[in-house]
Amino acid sequence: MKSTSVRLDRYLKKALSLARAEVQLLLARGEVFLDGECAKDIQQLVGEFTQVVVAGRLLQNRQPHYIQLHKPPGIVSATRDHKHKTVIDLITADCAAELHLVGRLDFNSTGLVLLTNDGRWSRRLTNPASGVEKHYRVTLDKPITPDIVAAFTKGMHFGFEDIITRPVRTSFTDPLCVDLYLHEGRYHQIKRMFGHFQITVLSLHRLAIGNVVLDSKLAEGEWRALTAAEVSGLGQYGEG
Q: Which residues are catalytic?
C-alpha cells in the first residue's frame, strides 16, 4: 500500500522552501522536533499526523478523526453535492471539512457510514483484499428461496465486470427480510444480486462494518466518534 509519509528533508523543503543543507543545519542545531522528539536524521518520516515543530514554529499538528454516522434516506454519500444534502453536512464537528467517506451507501439506503481524515486507514479498509465483513438488513418484495441462498453462497457472475462475487452469507427468519454478510462492496452489489432473480430491494440498512456496529443510541442523522477499540479493531484489516 502506498505510504502517505514523506522524508523529513522533502517535507521541510516543501513547507519552508529550504535546501537540503539548510535542513541538515537545523537538525544539527536541534531545532526540529517530530512528535516532541528532537529529530536527528533527514530521512526520518513525517506522516500526515506527525506533529512538526521547527525553531519553535508549529508547522503541522493534525489530529486523526474517526466517526460513525447513522445515515438517513435521501442523503448523498459524498463530500459535496449541488442538489442534495450530504453526509458531511450532518457532521457538526470542526473537523467536518477534512473528512471523507470509508465506503458509501446509496441515496435511499440507511445505516452505518464511517468517515475519517486518515487516508491510510480508509484505504486499508476499502481495499478489496482487506476482507472486512459488512452486515446489511434487506427487505424484499418477494421471498428469498433456497436456490437464491445457494447462489449467493457460491458466488454470482457479474457480466459487466466479468467477475464472480465472493460468497455472501445469509441469515433470516422472515423470507422478506434478510441479513446479508459481505466481504466486498461491488457497485450496487446487493440490488444486482437480487435483481438477477427478479426481486426488488425495498430497503437496505447497514448494521455493521467489521467490529463496528451501528450505535443503537444514534437516531438517523446523528453521529459520534469511534472508540479507540473500534478504530484499532478496524485498523487490523488489510495488515500483513
A: 106
